[in-house]
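User: Batch of two.

Assistant: Item 1 of 2:
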Amino acid sequence: MGDDKIRAAAFGQIRQFGDPVLKEESRPVEVDDELRKLVDRMIKIMHAADGVGLAAPQIGVLRKVIVFQLDKQEYVMINPEITWRSEETITDAEGCLSLASLAVDVERAKQVKVEGEDLEGNHQVLELEGLNARILQHEIDHLEGLMVVNRCSREQRKDLMARLRQMRLPGED
C-alpha cells in the first residue's frame, strides 16, 4: 500500500472535529492486555498519519491513554495528569490530527510536569519544556474533551472553521 493510502486509512480511523466523542471527558484505565492492544493500534495510527501524538478519544475510545513521540522516541502514558505548569507561556502554531492537520496559534505553558503510568503500570514522571511540553498538553486536553479550537482566539476559530469547510481529508476524492 502506498504512503497516501496508508495515511488515508489512518485518517479514516481518527475522529474529526465535530464528532461528539471529542467533547467527552475520558475515564481512567487499568493496564491489561486489552489496553496493550489499544496502545499498539494507537501507535500504528499515529505513525501512519504522520503525527507526534494521539489520544484514545481521537479513535473513539474514552480512556485516559496517550501515545506520543519525544525526540524520535515513542512513549505511552496511562492516566496522565499535569501536576505542574510554569507561569511562563509560549504561543505557537499547533496542528491536530482531528482537525485534518490544520494549525492555529495556541498559548501553552513553557514547561510542565506530567505524571502517569507506563504500560507495565509503573509510575512515571516527565518534566518537559518547549515543543515536548506542548505535545503533552495537547494530548491531555483531548482526554478532557478539549481541542485547540477551545484554546485559540475567536478570529482564529472563525478562520479555522472556514478552512475546514473547504478542505478534504487525505484520501478523500
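Item 2 of 2:
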Amino acid sequence: MSNQPVQTVSTSADKAKVVLAVCAAIAGVIGFYFLSDKPTIVRAGALVAGLIAAIGLAWTSVSGQSFLNFAKEAIRETKKVVWPTRKEALQITAIVFAFVLIMAIFLWGTDKLLEFLLYDLILGWKQ
C-alpha cells in the first residue's frame, strides 16, 4: 500500500483570501505612488498598511499556513548547517582565485596560439 500524502483542495473562500491579499498588496503599492504629493510618512504608511493587510489575509488561508510551515522548516534546517570557519573560508577563497587566475592565463594562451596559427600560418595575415 502506498503512503502518499493527501493533497487538500483549496476552497473558493481560501482562493478569495489569496486574491484579496494580492489586491491589498497591489493597493498599498498603488497608494504609495498615488500619494506622491503627500509627505513621505503618509506614503510609507499606505504601503505598510497594504502589505500588513495582505499578510494578514494570506496568513488566514490554507496556502498561507502551509507557507508558514515551510518557512519554519527552512529555518530549522538552516540551523543544522555547519558553516566553515574563517580560516577555511579564506583558504577556499584563495583556491578559487588561484584557479580563476590559472584558467584566465590558459584561455589567454590558447587564444593567442589559435590567433597565431590561423592568422599568421594558415591565412598569412600579419597583424
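The chain has two domains: 12-79, 84-127.
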